[in-house]
Amino acid sequence: MSRKHNHINPFYIKCIALLFLFFVVGCSNTKYLPEGDLLYTGGSVTIKDSIMKKKNRKALEKELEGLLRPKPNKQIFGLRPKLLIYNLAGEPKKDKGTRYWLRNKVGEPPVLFSQVDLDYNASVLRNFTENRGYFKTRVSADSTVRNKRVTAEYIVTPRQQYIIKSVIFPDDSLKMSKIIAKSSRRSLLKVGAPYDLDVIKAERERIDARLKEKGYFYFNPDYILAKVDSSKGDHEVRIRLVIKDDTPVKALTTYKIDKIFVYPNYSLTNDSAVYRKRNMTQYKDLTIIDTTETFKPRIYDRTIYFKKGDVYNRKDHNLTLNRFVNLGTFSFVKNEFKPSDSIPNALDSYYFLTLLPKKFIRVEVIGKTNSASYTGTELNLNWNNRNFLRGAELFTASIFGGADFQLGGTNKGKNIYKLGGEVSLTWPRFITPFNIEGNSEYVPRTKATLRYEYQKRTQLYALNSFNTSFGYMWKENIRKEHQLNVIDVTYVSPNHVTPEYLEDIKTDPALGKVIEKQLIFGPTYNYTYTNTMQKRKKNTIYFNGELDLAGNLTGAITGANIKKNDTIKIFDVPFSQYVKIRSDFRHYLKLGKESELASRLIVGAGFAYGNSRTLPASKQFVVGGTNSIRAFRARTLGPGSYVIPPNTNDNYTPDQSADLKLEFNTEYRAKLFSIVRGAVFLDAGNIWLLHADPNKPGAEISKDFMKEIAIGAGAGLRFDLSFLVLRTDLAIPLRNPALPDGQRWVIDNINFGSSSWRKDNLILNIAIGYPF
């Protein structure tokens, strides 16, 4: 009977030894402490309160611990690597070199107990707690020493929290008092809510903001006094808001706008420049001081929301500044208000604008890889003019070229080369037959684009692609954005198709779609809503909806009907006619400071009719790959339960596409340490054809489509380098709809020990950025 020996991989032994050494050296951090001092390892706060709910008590303890100073040395897995590096580097002999860099840039000095002021921290905790309504709070502080390490412990004993019994707003005869009273329903001070000094401060700022909308330019929150009476009632306070008696007269007065001055060529290095009167241009209510007539005067009139005689309004003030910034032509925008020297209770407004360089060139070099094992590079050369027609228009002319190579796999040698150019002109307004007035802080834009691209796939074919579009982009606010292309035309024509490729089409007709002539024109609309920029919200969402209408009006006018062989051609090419919609909904649930659950649902459908039997290949839906269902390679999944025949031409990677798409993804994300973040994920979905295709059995949508949902799962690491996120995801399929019904759960037959199973089912995705 033979005995089987289990050998331990030497690599694992080295890793364990390295970790052990790192731990031992890390434990010696106290060796380098100054004589008589201790290493401060942090503080803890314990609240002793029998009334407060446990959840509220834990939350308050966490808040209080965040106030403790100083912060201890950063830890990773119980070790302090930055302190370790600081100690190992030693004292450098000069202010440069590797040792200096390691000690002062990478490492951090020890946080010593001599730097900790227990009494000061106790007073900070007491003040914070009392400001939350826990009056007469007691705080005690102590410390514990173990092996030259010391921790601080603070015990907070609060009294019962006070709540707001009543709120009284200013009731004197001042006009502003009536304005404040009318806005009381929006007050942040609510009867029955806990007393909170921060809320009182926020209420004063709210009132100030309201008064700024009514012309009180010189008012500020400090002129409001909150009188708090806690002498009556059981742990209750009465709050009375009053205007201070020493408030200046000008703060009690409303102001109007008088003169408006604009300096488009303001210099930061010479802000006292004297402009002669001959350099002044009067346009409506504006006085423009511009020695070079940089812009047409109407650009200022569209951007500045104040008019002569308007009551000062902070909303219009901020709106104007934001619109100047959004024009994209100024590096610096400054606004000043000065008392008018001609009429009382009026302000002269001054806008000082510093120009960005009018013309500039931007060069981009891009390295890329994709799921089909292509690796390549692209060079973009862009020439830009920020004020092309003296109306803050942006003109861009660019040329680009690139190459993609497959170093291995079925397409080795069939490299892809592309070369092209694009010109675009963007106006900072709506170009329409009728006038559209907007009041958003974001400048609406009209954009016209013309693009050509030549793509050569060696040994196979070449494609000429032309595109032109004209449309509008505008934002209602920071959350809502629209894009409408009134005209969007794409024309694709094949060139230099090789006999080899034509021969392959005979065995695989699907390859013929790639080189079909295409003429696509019609409007497109895109809407985006997001509140993900609100970092404090626990739940945030992102929604993007697309509508693509091609050839519908032309098809209706011409009566095109491919079913009756009434195909209409333009320039000898049948135009595409279809309706396509797609929605992308994402939800982000914040679970902790450095963790969240991110989910996405994609639903898409395209319907070809009239002049077209199917959607153009470029408009069909695909699934799989680094940003989709990661357990399946790009374009290899579906449609439905369709199985790629074993005799399919092996010279080409699969390129499955369809008319319908359903996809769901969810992943848990958490910070592991430093720049490294981890994730575990689950992906599901598939694509389907709307109508049966005899060449693709099982691809059509049916009532049993849920049985054809593919499922994959995996885990990944993300390296957040601030300027980009490098992502690696390792995924395995759990359910494969291409397998026979009843055998689709791949998880039942997982065999990690099989090299062939690992090769076919362990999918490594490397990408830039998060998948959603």
From TrEMBL:
Keywords: Cell outer membrane, Membrane, Signal, Transmembrane. Residues 576-753 form the Bacterial surface antigen (D15) domain. It is found in: Membrane. InterPro entries: Bac_surfAg_D15, D15-like. This is BamA/TamA family outer membrane protein. It comes from Flavobacterium chungangensis. The lineage of its organism: Bacteria, Pseudomonadati, Bacteroidota, Flavobacteriia, Flavobacteriales.
